[in-house]
From TrEMBL:
GO terms for biological process: NADH dehydrogenase complex assembly. GO terms for molecular function: unfolded protein binding. InterPro entries: Galactose-bd-like_sf, NADH-UbQ_OxRdtase-assoc_prot30, NDUFAF1. It comes from the Eukaryota. This is CIA30-domain-containing protein. Residues 19-181 form the NADH:ubiquinone oxidoreductase intermediate-associated protein domain. Belongs to the CIA30 family. Transmembrane segments: none annotated.
């Protein structure tokens, strides 16, 4: 497929100002939860504040709140870049997740979105703010909240959706949250800059967790049992 590279490395912020109409919320209320998220845009300086309340009482210790892009026609070609850079001038120190999708499946007859692969990166930013560079190899493929293996690589020339999420990690965090993002853009490594040392893991013990081969036809039968509220259909 022939891709047309972006004229600017910025997806949001910088030369491509944040706009409220480009984002919408997807919170755990779709699963009976009580979390709420908002994306408030500031003009001077042009930043976006992802904020709200992460509730874990309604779903027994679980919960999530997220904002994602609304477009179904725009495609980001990120092939010229080595990863994404987030400029975060202010954070509350909670753990957040940056999400990407390269495919938007047709909706179900009842209007709900179908499940699909979501590429995720979990991160924390100090309260004083920081710039975070995420190489493509740091994004992990997930399906219905579970990491999977044996899947096709992320199509960097055809990214269809971008999202920011906060979740409880089953009781690890809750309450009010706030993350101020100045920009999200592609970055290129400097000459001589080495490869990443490996994917960030919040809990090193998770290295022993089982991984699953992805087969959408048999996934519901084999793997959704026990996922509970997080087995939501293509939400992020």
């Amino acid at each position: 497929m022939q891709y047309t590279p972006q004229s600017s490395p910025y997806l949001f912020g910088g030369t491509r100002p944040w706009t409220p109409s480009s984002w919408t919320s997807t919170d755990d209320r779709v699963r009976g939860g009580a979390s709420h998220s908002y994306l408030t845009i500031h003009e001077a300086p042009n930043t976006a504040t992802f904020h709200g309340t992460l509730d874990i009482t309604a779903l027994g210790g679980a919960g999530f709140a997220s904002q994602r892009t609304t477009t179904t026609s725009h495609v980001w070609d990120l092939t010229p870049y080595d990863g994404l850079e987030l400029s975060v001038p202010k954070s509350d120190g909670k753990k957040y997740t940056l999400t990407l999708k390269d495919e938007l499946l047709p909706r179900r007859p009842d209007g709900r979105e179908r499940s699909g692969l979501v590429w995720e990166y979990d991160f924390r930013v100090p309260k004083g703010g920081d710039k975070l560079r995420v190489p493509w190899g740091e994004f992990r493929p997930t399906y219905r909240g579970r990491e999977v293996s044996g899947v096709k690589p992320l199509d960097l020339g055809g990214v269809r959706r971008v999202g920011i999420m906060v979740r409880s990690f089953f009781g690890e965090q809750e309450g009010e949250f706030e993350l101020v993002v100045e920009s999200i853009k592609g970055f290129k490594k400097e000459e001589g800059e080495g490869e990443s040392e490996g994917r960030y893991r919040d809990d090193p013990e998770d290295l022993g967790e089982d991984e699953y081969e992805f087969d959408e036809k048999v996934w519901d039968e084999r793997h959704t049992k026990g996922l509970g509220w997080f087995s939501c259909c293509g939400l992020f």
